[in-house]
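Supplementary Methods, section 5.1.

A reviewer requested that the exact input to the structure prediction be made available. We therefore reproduce it here, unchanged from the version used in the analyses.
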Amino acid sequence: MVNVRSRISVGILLMLALSTLLLFWSALTASAQTADDCQLKIANLRTATADATFLGKNAEKDEAGLIGKLDSASAKLGEGKNADAIQSLNDFRDKVIMLNEQGKIDPDDAAALIAGADDAIACINGLETPQ
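The structure derived from this sequence is encoded token-by-token as follows.
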């Protein structure tokens, strides 16, 4: 009788452990970022850049240069070149910081663009590397 109870107890514990493991795995996969999620972040950042207020005589050129960096990041991500995409986003962020320091972009827009670049970089860093 004791052996039967022990086996049932072990079986219940194994079922609970398996259930917990499955729930944990489901939670991880549900929150995982995909390349499409990262592409959306870059696209949203591109829209925010186009809507930002640039100042000075080279305002259009500065905006176009930033959008070019985002287009490059998107293309590189599409090719699976995640490191290159991150480099383009780092270049974008550095240029926004420089423009902000020079007073060539609205400071609130600069802060939003920097945060967006950081978010896109974190997204790409969270992708699984291809085998």
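The longest helix spans residues 2-31. These observations are discussed further in the main text.
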